[in-house]
Amino acid sequence: MKTTLEIDDELYREAKVHASLTGQKMKDLVTIGLRLALRPGATTTRSTSAAASRKLAACFAEADKLMQTAPRGPIAREHLNKGRSRLDKA
Questions:
Q1: 48: pLDDT confidence band, cut at 50, 70 and 90?
Q2: Positive or negative CA dihedral for 4, 29, 25, 11?
Q3: pTM for this one?
């Protein structure tokens, strides 16, 4: 089913980076998040959110570095994929 969501700009940016770094589509990431949120007994604690925020901040920093050196055009995706492979090995 298709739907329209209004998402905070910063949250969308974080989600987009996460989806790119993990090779997922945004729709898949949203589906996973909804499934997790709807599980019986699912709660989000501040410590979980803080840990996730730190992880995403590190991802943003790495993505920003990659974007600064990434060439324009279709080759940029290949450059980012190399960076993602390097992150996967870390």
A1: low
A2: positive
A3: 0.46
